[in-house]
Write a structure and sequence with these properties.
Strand order of the largest sheet: 1-2-4-3
Oligomer: single chain
Helix content: 55-70%
Strand content: 5-15%
Order of helices and strands: HEHEHEEHHH
Radius of gyration: 15 Å
Largest sheet: 4 strands, mixed
Distance between the termini: 42 Å
Number of helices: 6
Structural class: alpha+beta
Length: about 160
């Protein structure tokens, strides 16, 4: 286990590497991904996503894995675990074909897409997200709490 203080010092080096990997995954899967359905697009708009038409959904047998070093970091931050069923890569939401509750995973990814828009770039999002995971733990980081809150609100909404 890498100490949190060491991970925090490594972030300026790690974030660009993770960002580069995120963009390569997006490039590799983009053509096989589908656009949002009308219902998913309505949910994205209701959440405040500015560019819902730029978001795609890829359903895959296995989630793409980063290099062993980046995978180790993701495991330390609990971003990648054996039970991870989806990840958001900038404007691409990738979901395991075997994952239950795929609609909720899409909504989860839409909130992360909103957060990426709000941060202004994938790198800025990753930096903030990783810092929050280090400080609060993934389950309690403000960005993940926002995801849970927005998805819950969306589930209660009669419009979507």
């Amino acid at each position: 286990m890498i100490h949190r203080a060491v991970l925090h010092k490594m972030l300026p080096t790690i974030v660009p590497l993770v960002s580069e990997w995120v963009m390569s995954v997006e490039r590799n899967l983009w053509n096989s991904a589908r656009p949002l359905t009308d219902q998913e697009r309505a949910a994205a708009v209701q959440m405040g996503v500015q560019k819902p038409d730029s978001i795609r959904i890829a359903i895959v047998d296995e989630l793409p894995e980063p290099s062993p070093e980046l995978k180790h970091l993701a495991e330390q931050l609990r971003i990648l675990t054996p039970t991870t069923n989806s990840l958001t890569y900038s404007h691409l939401i990738v979901i395991k074909r075997s994952a239950p509750h795929q609609d909720e995973l899409v909504q989860h990814g839409l909130v992360h897409a909103l957060q990426i828009e709000r941060c202004g770039s994938v790198q800025a999002f990753l930096r903030e997200y990783f810092e929050q995971c280090l400080e609060f733990g993934k389950e309690n980081c403000p960005m993940e709490l926002e995801v849970c809150s927005r998805v819950s609100q969306l589930c209660l909404s009669p419009n979507v």
